[in-house]
Amino acid sequence: MASQNIYILGIESSCDDTAASVMHNGRILSNIVANQKIHEEYGGVVPELASRAHQQNIVPVVAQALKKANITKDQLHAIAFTRGPGLMGSLLVGTSFAKSLAYGLDIPLIDVNHMQGHILAHFIDEDGFEKPPFPFLAMTISGGHTQIVMVDNYFDMTVIGETIDDAVGEAFDKSGKILGLGYPAGPEIDKRAKLGNPKAFKFTKPKVDGLNFSFSGLKTAILYFIQNETKANPNFIEENLNDICASIQYTIIGILIDKLKLASKQTGIKHIAIGGGVSANSGIRQALKDGEQKFGWTTYVPKFEFTTDNAAMIAIVGHLKYLDGEFAEQNVAASARLKI
């Protein structure tokens, strides 16, 4: 990507994962993530607990990233960090740490939009993974976000569709909660969906104009469906769990693919890239592959470790901004609702 020798440290702390990554000329040397298991017992992320855990984790995580990359902090050329969007308390920990470290080392500070990170993760130099050509459509799907973005260049992006209520990851997790599954429920639903019949139960897809999404109505429909069925048969969930999971997943994937089809048709763009934690879902990956046959798409899915929240995606944005000389001032502030 560049002939110079550029080492970037990426720091990600937007939600409940504390992550640090060292990148050398577009290639990842280390990608360390400290997960916070504490949230599982609450069935969702508790912001106050998340920020406290970040404070405990950030120094050891950064130290480990440098150690694994086999470099010292004095070899770094810049510090890239997630400025937003995300949980304010969590963002503040990463932001203040990055600012202090950059100031202490007297090197540039680079602020990164978390959503751009998910999209530009496709540009990490990784053997066996192709990079999408411009322009392409990026669908970012996670616990907190559902967006379709038209990407004309690294930093020329337009959100053309987004959720008007819940994110897709939330739809998986809340459906899982209704079924008595643990948190996060997405991977468990995915696993069980492979064993079930996706057309066993029919859920109505919400009608939303244009390229926007809605998942709150679906969630309510699933809740009422389960309440009615368990009233008639108290063992309904355990007797039909795989079929219920398959039907929920089939409906959610249908909603995503319908909007992607429309976006591709409207823009004439057939290069489709996905990112975000929910892109790990095997059903979504399969539906995208099918889209290559059905609609003539070329699809791009990043390496699994670059789909969930991670610092490698922050480091690649830092690398690209470094090449452009686009640096942040020391007074840069975290922003919970930062837009692309």
UniProtKB/TrEMBL annotation:
Subcellular locations according to the entry: Cytoplasm
Enzyme class: transferase
Residues that hold substrate according to the record: T140, I141, S142, G143, G144, D173, G186, D190, N281
Residue ranges of domain Gcp-like in the record: 28-315
Pfam families hit by this protein: TsaD
EC numbers on record: 2.3.1.234
Cofactor(s) of this protein: Fe(2+)
Domain of life, source organism: Bacteria
Gene Ontology terms for molecular function: tRNA N(6)-L-threonylcarbamoyladenine synthase activity
Signal peptide: none
InterPro entries per record: ATPase_NBD, Gcp-like_dom, KAE1/TsaD, Peptidase_M22_CS, TsaD
This protein's UniProt keywords: Acyltransferase, Cytoplasm, Iron, Metal-binding, Transferase, tRNA processing
Cofactor binding notes: Binds 1 Fe(2+) ion per subunit.
Record's catalysed reaction(s): L-threonylcarbamoyladenylate + adenosine(37) in tRNA = N(6)-L-threonylcarbamoyladenosine(37) in tRNA + AMP + H(+)
Residues holding Fe cation: H114, H118, D309
Gene3D superfamilies hit by this protein: 3.30.420.40
Classification via SUPFAM superfamilies: Actin-like ATPase domain
NCBIfam families: gcp_kae1, T6A_TsaD_YgjD
Chain's role: Required for the formation of a threonylcarbamoyl group on adenosine at position 37 (t(6)A37) in tRNAs that read codons beginning with adenine. Is involved in the transfer of the threonylcarbamoyl moiety of threonylcarbamoyl-AMP (TC-AMP) to the N6 group of A37, together with TsaE and TsaB. TsaD likely plays a direct catalytic role in this reaction.
Protein name per its UniProtKB record: tRNA N6-adenosine threonylcarbamoyltransferase
Organism: Mariniflexile gromovii
